[in-house]
């Protein structure tokens, strides 16, 4: 049965948002999390681009398609806030992370943080992470049943220690910090959303304390001695007019940045590995490009020459958008595409399913990196057709960092290994949280001599 979210103000030309919300609080949460693609399509065909339903305990308006994404993300009227929306999911563990700040305050922090992501800084980060990539990939052991996802996850975690924290850790401390970090990230997807000892939410709160204590302990030395890592960069970041982060800000932003960078890059690399395993002709094509560079470890300017790898990376992020949905909360009455949305509503931009809309993409389920090549550029049909990094004021600040890291890792993987999956293999993609393969993506890994 369909029902309206709220009647539009009398005399306005606005339409009401329709939906089939289902049982209060629960609605279609389980179906949407298990099969977001089918659910999104059904809603779109039945109700159009703007619909509502119960999702994870909240009345949620889902706005589909690039035009609606632009309205929400560009946020011209400052009607959509990040803080209250994201806080519901990850608030206690990522308190005052930059993505959870809004409007003037967010802009203030963003201007300072930008100083840690300039081109010279990115060059330095790449140099800092190169030995870790060589070491990490060099330690991979060929064989069948090599779980690509698990190995890439470990590698990005190890790289984060070098390039984000820049702190020498003894193995026990490294395990403790990595464990805390994993607990903090997992806690956001807890079913029981209050602290019960032993369960995810409780472990997340404890992990937050461990991480805070860790960064606070190392902060004075970082402020004093500097370094080539993100932690040092945030300690030193200063705008032209002299604004800097407080100690609390540095701690909050470090914990958030670790989270923002880790799973997203891991998911992208895993998706690339999956499609390159299923499309060996593409794997050879990108390998040839890497060989043509003629060096084991690429430098900053070399990465632009990995053109096909760039196409594969974009196509992987289209097929599996690592952040599947961008939530906002309306802070005043507003509208999207002529639909009335009252103050206090959670609104979601579903990048994962938007990237599969047949209205926007030709043969959307097909792995076709050339769709991003000059001459086709399907992503240019609309500025928000392809939006894995979001858009507007909160657009991913680490997008160039991510590209550098992903390409550097793949360059080394491609030169050292070939990998494959059995004919007909389809990965079991879990979409109940950030997307990831339930089986860890087992591949047959061969070393190239
Ligand atoms: C493939 C990798 C990545 C993807 C797909 C990705 C995606 C995103 C998305 C969609 C947002 C916007 C969220 C929103 O609007 O609600 C975002 C924000 C952010 N990302 Fe990334 N990200 C990636 C890698 C990174 C990396 C490597 C870093 C840090 C080095 C990073 C740091 C951040 C930060 C700090 C924000 C918040 C920006 C703000 O609110 O102003 N991300 N990311």
UniProtKB/TrEMBL annotation:
Heme binds at residue 396. InterPro entries: Cyt_P450, Cyt_P450_CS, Cyt_P450_E_grp-IV, Cyt_P450_sf. GO terms for molecular function: heme binding; iron ion binding; monooxygenase activity; oxidoreductase activity, acting on paired donors, with incorporation or reduction of molecular oxygen. Pfam families: p450. Keywords: Heme, Iron, Metal-binding, Monooxygenase, Oxidoreductase. Its cofactor is heme. One of its GO terms (biological process) is sterol metabolic process. Belongs to the cytochrome P450 family. This is Cytochrome P450. It comes from Thermomonospora echinospora.
């Amino acid at each position: 049965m369909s029902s309206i979210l709220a009647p539009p103000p009398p005399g306005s030309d606005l339409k009401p948002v329709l939906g089939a919300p289902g049982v209060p609080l629960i609605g279609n949460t389980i179906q949407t999390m298990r099969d977001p693609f089918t659910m999104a399509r059904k809603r779109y065909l039945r109700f159009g681009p703007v619909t509502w339903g119960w999702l994870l305990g909240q009345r949620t308006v889902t706005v589909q398609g690039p035009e609606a994404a632009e309205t929400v993300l560009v946020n011209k009227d400052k009607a959509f806030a990040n803080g209250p929306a994201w806080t519901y999911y990850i608030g206690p563990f990522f308190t005052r992370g930059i993505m959870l700040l809004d409007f003037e305050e967010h802009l203030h922090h963003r201007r300072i943080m930008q100083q840690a992501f300039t081109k010279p800084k990115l060059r330095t980060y790449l140099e800092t992470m190169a030995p870790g990539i060589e070491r990490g990939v060099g330690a991979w052991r060929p064989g069948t049943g090599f779980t690509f996802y698990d190995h890439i996850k470990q590698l990005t975690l190890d790289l984060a220690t070098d390039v984000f924290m820049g702190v020498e850790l003894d193995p026990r401390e490294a395990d403790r910090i990595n464990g805390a970090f994993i607990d903090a990230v997992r806690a956001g997807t807890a079913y029981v959303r209050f602290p019960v000892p032993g369960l995810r939410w409780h472990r997340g709160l404890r992990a937050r304390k461990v991480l805070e204590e860790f960064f606070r302990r190392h902060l004075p030395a970082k402020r004093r001695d500097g370094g080539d890592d993100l932690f040092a960069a945030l300690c030193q970041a200063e705008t032209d007019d002299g604004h800097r982060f407080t100690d609390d800000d540095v701690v909050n932003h470090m914990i958030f940045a670790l989270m923002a960078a880790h799973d997203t890059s891991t998911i992208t690399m895993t998706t690339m590995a999956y499609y390159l395993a299923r499309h060996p002709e593409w794997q050879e094509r990108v390998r040839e490009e890497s060989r043509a560079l003629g060096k084991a470890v690429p430098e900053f300017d070399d990465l632009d020459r990995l053109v096909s790898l760039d196409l594969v990376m974009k196509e992987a992020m289209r097929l599996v958008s690592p952040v599947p949905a961008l939530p906002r909360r309306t802070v005043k009455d507003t509208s999207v595409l002529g639909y009335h949305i009252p103050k206090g509503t959670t609104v979601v931009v579903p990048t994962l399913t938007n990237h599969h809309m047949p209205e926007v993409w030709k043969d959307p389920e097909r792995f076709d990196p050339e769709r991003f090549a000059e001459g086709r550029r399907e992503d240019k049909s609309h500025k928000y057709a392809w939006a894995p990094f979001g858009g507007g004021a909160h657009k991913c600040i680490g997008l160039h960092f991510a590209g550098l890291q992903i390409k550097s890792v793949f360059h080394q993987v491609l030169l050292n290994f070939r990998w494959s999956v059995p004919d007909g293999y389809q990965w079991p993609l879990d979409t109940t949280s950030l997307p990831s393969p339930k089986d860890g993506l087992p591949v047959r890994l061969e070393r190239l001599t």
